[in-house]
Amino acid sequence: MCSPPAIITVVIFLFSAGVFVLNLVCRSDSVKSEIMQILQETFSSIAAYKLIEEVNEVLFCWKQKLGKNSIKKKIRSSTEELVNKASKKRNVFGDDRIDVTQFMNSLKLT
After folding, report:
1. To which H or E segment does residue 86 belong?
2. Which of these, 49, 2, 52, lies nearest to 22 by C-alpha position?
3. How far apart are alpha carbons 52 and 49 in whole angstroms?
4. 80 Cβ contact partners less than 8 Å away, ≥ 6 residues apart
5. Which of the listed residues 43, 84, 98, 103 has the most CB atoms within 10 Å of its CB?
6. CA separation for the pair 88, 91 (Å, rounded)
7. Packed helices 29-42 and 5-13: angle between N→C axes, nearest 10 degrees
8. Nearest CA-CA partner of 10 in 45, 43, 44
């Protein structure tokens, strides 16, 4: 399958250690399957997080081959940093909080 020009552009400009994050919103299983195939042919490592009760799936894609532990470490440290920064900027209570452990356990690594 041929990669679309947009994906090729992303790969060209993405640093070797960089991550491409895609918020995939797709109701068609066949289209989603096509997109996943293109991403798997293009990127060496992919992690996916399916949002509960949503159509969205957030995909983290790396050009370099990473082990599952390395992927989890990278995502965990970035997530914790973002949560900490967001919490400092505004008061975060109740339903606004993010459960990083639940997020990490829900990651699907390919």
Report:
1. helix 68-89
2. 49
3. 9
4. 100
5. 43
6. 7
7. 30
8. 43
CA–CA distance, 65 with 89 (Å, rounded to integer): 35
Q: What is the pLDDT of residue 86?
A: 65
22: helix, strand or coil = strand
Rg of the chain over all Cα atoms, to the nearest angstrom: 15
- Domain extent at residue 90: 5-109
Distance, in Å, from the CA atom of 8 to the CA atom of 43, rounded to the nearest integer, reads 11
Q: What are phi and psi of 54, to 5 degrees?
A: -130, 165
pLDDT in tens, 30-86: 999 999 999 999 999 999 888 888 888 989 999 989 888 888 888 888 777 777 776
Q: Hey, what are 29's tokens?
A: 């299983």
Classified as helix, coil or strand, 63 is: coil
CB 49 within 8 A of CB 57: yes
Alpha helices by DSSP H, listed for 5-50, are 5-13, 29-42
